[in-house]
Design goal:
Layout lengths: L4 H13 L7 H15 L7 E10 L2 E10 L6 E7 L13 H11 L2 E6 L10 H15 L6 E11 L1 H13 L6 E5 L11 H4 L8 H12 L23 E6 L5 H13 L4 E6 L15 H16 L2
Parallel strand pairs: 3-4, 3-5, 5-6, 6-7, 7-8
Antiparallel strand pairs: 1-2, 2-4
Length: about 300
């Protein structure tokens, strides 16, 4: 399909404003926060939210719990790790997508405010995500969660973090991994990386800066950074993977799905025609984000029923 006209309009607007490739982490954060305020919806009917703080060693990790108003008691849960290239994003920038998923699924969405690079380079963010997941799993009643029905998920860089957490905890602990336009092979070149690496929301230069800030001296082939580089995919939790047709990270999301299936892991995939990276979090600018949330929410409900 051709690029969605609303996505094209948004890309043109971002290009005209010079906001497609901020050169510093501070500018990246400001730009993403401004985009969320302009192009997404923070409040969703039928969903209430509350913040809690979890102490993990010397760090205090904030959680935002999005709950369907009609639900009561112990619910299935999705522990959600936001995107933002490891250096930006947070509970506010992803409040809309988290709330839409809660409304569509009937599942508690527990969004995690892990620490960001470059102040906290790899593996700090991943360690925060693991600590948060373990906290929810080990004290499920505190969060109103059914411990037998806990998924991990995320988008973009957060999708890669979710895949790494799912690998660390395993299928016996995690019921599902939900990955939305995930980054799963950070050093990948060619294919969709080359085709959509300019003028499609994330530029190659911006991605390289984010990765350098996050990875430092780390190995890009480390499966904790690039889950697609793992030697084996046996025993991983079932997966739901969503990709976008005009996304630089399209190929690696679909390659990960093939790797899971080859290892005998159940995997459901959807490619969103005409869409760009991050479309799912831009409901005002790209109304199809609401349709996608309905689809993903239904899949999540069925998978955790």
């Amino acid at each position: 399909m051709p690029l969605d006209r609303r996505a094209r309009r948004l890309l043109d607007m971002l290009a005209a404003s010079g906001g497609t490739a901020p050169e510093t982490p501070a500018a990246r954060r400001t730009a993403l926060e401004a985009l969320a305020q302009m192009a997404d919806e923070a409040d969703v009917d039928g969903v209430s939210s509350r913040d809690v703080v979890f102490e993990a060693g010397q760090a205090a990790i904030a959680f935002r719990i999005h709950s369907p108003d009609s639900a009561a008691g112990a619910l299935p849960a999705l522990i959600y790790f936001h995107g933002g290239g490891w250096v930006a994003g947070g509970l506010d920038t992803h409040a809309g997508v988290s709330a839409r998923l809660a409304a569509a699924s009937g599942v508690r969405i527990i969004s995690i405010d892990y620490r960001l690079a470059p102040e906290h380079p790899f593996p700090t963010g991943l360690e925060d995500c693991l600590a948060a997941a373990r906290a929810v799993i080990s004290d499920a009643a505190r969060f109103g969660v059914d411990a037998a029905r806990i998924a991990v998920g995320g988008d973009s860089a957060g999708g890669g973090l979710a895949a790494a957490v799912a690998r660390e905890l395993g299928a016996g602990t995690v019921a599902l991994q939900l990955l939305i336009c995930p980054i799963l092979d950070v050093a990948r070149t060619g294919g969709s990386r080359a085709t959509f690496g300019e003028d499609h929301f994330i530029s190659r230069a911006a991605f390289a800066r984010d990765l350098a800030d996050y990875l430092g001296s780390g190995d890009p082939g480390d499966p904790r950074v690039s889950p697609l580089k793992a030697r084996s995919f046996d025993g991983l939790p079932p997966a739901i993977i969503h990709t976008a047709e005009f996304d630089p990270f399209l190929d690696e999301g679909e390659a990960y799905a093939r790797a899971l299936r080859s290892a005998g892991v159940d995997c459901e995939t959807t490619r969103h025609a005409g869409m760009i990276h991050y479309f799912y979090a831009l409901a005002r600018a790209i109304p199809y984000a609401r349709d996608a949330a309905t689809l993903i929410g239904g899949q999540l409900r069925r998978a955790l029923s």
